[in-house]
């Protein structure tokens, strides 16, 4: 009886283990502010990009997005978002996916656009604080 319980416990332990290796990138940790936008979109030329911020927590693959105005938002409205990484792709839960890259302390997010839509190109450049 003890052997049966031990076997069942081992089977339960093995089955409860998953292969959920969460991909992380230590560079995606900290605070970033927007420095440049390239898109087929309009924005007020007097807007201060530095007020648009990303606060990444790489320990749980989430970020907080801060938008000073809801008139303009490029990733989503202000809030906290979970993300997944797949090589150089940052997939935002409930939103779009972006190719991400670093050059020094600059983070570039390039929207993975729909090839059938001609005007959805978007490149966001952030500076690490």
Automatic annotation (TrEMBL):
This is Lipocalin-like domain-containing protein. It comes from Gillisia lutea.
């Amino acid at each position: 009886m003890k052997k049966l319980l031990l076997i069942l416990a081992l089977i339960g332990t093995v089955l409860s283990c998953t292969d959920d290796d969460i991909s992380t990138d230590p560079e995606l940790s900290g605070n970033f502010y927007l420095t440049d936008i390239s898109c087929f979109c309009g924005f007020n030329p007097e807007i201060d990009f530095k007020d648009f911020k990303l606060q990444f927590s790489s320990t749980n693959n989430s970020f907080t997005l801060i938008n000073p105005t809801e008139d303009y938002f490029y990733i989503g409205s202000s809030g906290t978002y979970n993300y997944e990484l797949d090589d150089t792709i940052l997939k935002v839960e409930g939103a779009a996916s972006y190719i991400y890259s670093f050059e020094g302390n600059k983070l570039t997010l390039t929207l993975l656009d729909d090839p059938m839509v001609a005007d959805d190109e978007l490149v966001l450049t952030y500076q690490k604080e």
